[in-house]
Amino acid sequence: MSHLENESMKKLLPMTSFQLEEYVAQALENNPVLEADEHFAPKEEDPIPGDRPLSPYGRNIAANPTLRDVLMFQLMTTEKKVLLPVAEYIIGCLDRKGYLKRSTGELAEETGLSQAQVEQTIEVLQSFDPPGVCARNLQECLLIQLRRKESCMPLSITIVERFLEPLARGELEWIGEDTGSSVEQVRQALEEIRSLNPKPGSNYSSPQPAVLPDVKAGLWEGSLKVSVVAGPRLAINHYYLERLELVDQLTREYLEREIAAGRQLIGLLQQRRELLTQVAQWMVAQQQEFLFHGQPLRPLTPKDAARALGLEEETIRLAVSGKYLQYSKGSVSLGSLFLSSPEEK
Question: Distance between alpha carbon 104 and the CA centroid of its chain, in Å?
């Protein structure tokens, strides 16, 4: 039977890591018999050589860097405790000025973290250069910069916290009266505020789209290592299995339907992992000279991969769709390892 005769697999296979997490989270909410598999404990991160601190942006940081390049380099080298995939996702959400336009609640929903965890990650990013980056608004951007200065007028912080609008209207005397300061002191604070950068991301090249790896690859003591980023794992809650013989017929029929649906999804997720692993390992192995030794890309197509792996060409196209490979020299889309994109073939 074809892998893709199942319409659900056609839907699951092209999903990226975050899309899959959102899909599974919705399944957990809709199906009461499903639970996160606590017995599955993925390794903290697969030890791909070059993953930290050089990958994915260490080599590119010097040449015409984007804001994302600069922040990713700091993220990969920071000693602060931070959830790397989530921090990378937040970096990808910054606008051209370096501002974060998503709320903590939205980010929590998108990443599956608590709002406290999201806020902790944002605080780490706000400690990076350029000062003021990852602020939610102009006020926060200016305050971050003032608080990082070695010597800062306390009046400047007070004005940014409470008097930005009066300051914009030029009401210096009123600000002085309200703060117990002279007009000259307010002017000095104004000069300090004017020295700050309200657009901390504007001095860098245009930002690139957010890239979260779905596959990681590296050379370890001469051997190629390819790892698919661990996806969500599910299990059937044993409480409901044990209740089947203790409930009335209608309830039992309902639970049996939900258990069957849950088992089907668990099987599909496993099948997706196996397919993606199979395709990624073959593709990286075929193109390792290009990836790690600077040789030209081999002339491979999705049809070649399908023939070699005994899969349908459509399976290959769906497996690489939207997926990114992280390796010691950077990040590339998995589909770019073909000479032409799978959509064009």
Answer: 15
At residue 245 the predicted structure's pLDDT band, cuts being 50, 70 and 90, is confident
What pLDDT sits at residue 259? 92
- 39 confidence band (pLDDT: 50, 70, 90): low
For residue 307 the two structure tokens come to: 């023939």
- Token pair of 82, please? 């931070």
Across the chain, mean pLDDT equals 82
Is the sign of the CA dihedral 129, 91, 331, 337 positive or negative?
A: negative
Residue 197 pLDDT > 50:
yes
Residues of the chain above pLDDT 90, percent:
36
Q: 3-state secondary structure string, the chain?
A: CCHHHCHHHHHHCCCCHHHHHHHHHHHHHHCCCEEECCCCCCCCCCCCCCCCCCCCCCCCCCCCCEHHHHHHHHHHHCCCCCCHHHHHHHHCCECCCCCECCCHHHHHHHHCCCHHHHHHHHHHHHCCCCCCCCCCCHHHHHHHHHHHCCCCCHHHHHHHHHCHHHHHCCCHHHHHHHHCCCHHHHHHHHHHHHCCCCCCCCCCECCCCCCCCCEEEEEECCEEEEEECCCCCEEECHHHHHHHHHCCHHHHHHHHHHHHHHHHHHHHHHHHHHHHHHHHHHHHHHCHHHHHHCCCCCCCCHHHHHHHHCCCHHHHHHHHCCCEEEECCEEEEHHHHCCCCCCCC
- Least confident span in 42-46, 177-181, 255-259, 318-322: 42-46
For the record, the structure tokens of 13 come out as 């296979």
Q: Quote the tokens at residue 7.
A: 């319409």
CA dihedral 67, 73, 75, 76 (to 10 degrees): 160
Instruction: Give the pLDDT confidence score for residue 206 in this predicted structure.
Output: 53
